[in-house]
Amino acid sequence: MKKYLLVLFVACTGNAALAQNNWKTPYLTKSLSGQSVKEVFVNTSGGSITVSGASGEQPRVEIFIQGNNGNGDLPKEEIQKRLDENYELKVDVSGGEVHASAKSKKDNNWDWKKSLSISFRVYVPANVATNLNTSGGSIHLDNLTGTQQFETSGGSLHLDKIAGNIKGRTSGGSIHVSNSKDDIDLQTSGGSIEATNCTGRIRLETSGGSLHLDGLKGDIKATTSGGSISGNKIDGDFVTGTSGGSINLTDLSCSLDASTSAGSFHAQFLSVGKSVKIDVSAGRVDLQLPSKQGLNLDVRADRVEANLGDSFSGNKDKERIEGKLNGGGALVEVRGGNRVSLTVN
C-alpha cells in the first residue's frame, strides 16, 4: 500500500455496532505531524467517516479494516490480498489539502463475502474544513472550526463542538448536533433530529422523524413532515411545523411561528419576542403567556377558554378573544382547531 494519508470509515449500516466495537487496534497508523492540513476531502462508497479536531491528540490517520458479513477478524495477509484484488484506496496530501477515496473495483455482481469494512479516524488541528461523502455510513465530526460539508445516503450524522458554515445531509439516518454555532444547515429524509446547546442561524429539516430541541438561540427554523416536535429553552426567532405530529414547547423567550396539521399544541412562554403565530388544524391548543408583558391577542377556535386576569381589556366569547394584555404590545395570533386554552402566569 502506498503512503496513504487520511480518513474514511467503511462499514455496512448493519454492521455499525460491530465496527465500533472493533476500533481498538488500527490496521495502519499514518502520522500527519509536520503537515499543514487545512481541508479534508473524503469520498467512500459505503463506509463511515470521522474527523476530530480535539486538542491533545497527535495529528494522524488510523485505519481499521475487518471483514463484512460476520467475518470480522481477518489475518493481515488476507486483508492485504482483498485490498489489492477488490479495492482502490487513495490518499494524497498537497497544498494543505488531504484527499481520500475508497471504492470497489468490482461491479454489483462480485462476491460480497470477500468485502471489507474499512474504517478511518482522522485527528487534525481544530481549524480545518471538511468535504465528506459516503453512500452508506455515518459521519462524526467534533471540535472543528471552518466550513463543513458532508453527506451520507443512509447513515447518521453526529456533530459536537462545531463552529462555522455547517451543511449536512442524510437520506435516511438520524441527526445529533450539540454545542455548535454560527450557520447550521442539516437535513434528513427519514430520521429524527436532536439539537442541543446551539446558537446562530439554525436550519433543521426531516421528512419523517421527530425533532428534539433544547437550548437553541438565534434564527431558528426546524420542521418535520410527519413527526412530533419538542423544544425547551428556545431564544430568538423560531419557526417550526409538522404535518402530522404534536408540538410541545417550554421555557420560550422568542418570536414564534408554529403550525401542525393534525396534532395537539402546547407552548409556555417566559417572554414573547416580536410576535407569535400559531396555526393548529385539528388538535387542542394550550398556550401559557407571561403575565407582566404587554401583548395584543387575536385568538380564534371552535371553543376558546381563557384565564387572563384583570390585565386584559377587549372582547371575549366562546369562539374568540380580541384585545390587549397590560396595555398591548407584540401580537399573539392563534388559529386553533377544536379548542384553545389560554392562561397567563
From TrEMBL:
InterPro entries: Toastrack_DUF4097. Residues 180-309 form the DUF4097 domain. Keywords: Signal. Pfam families: DUF4097 (PF13349). The keyword Kinase does not apply. Residues 1-19 form the signal peptide. This is DUF4097 domain-containing protein. It comes from Mucilaginibacter celer.
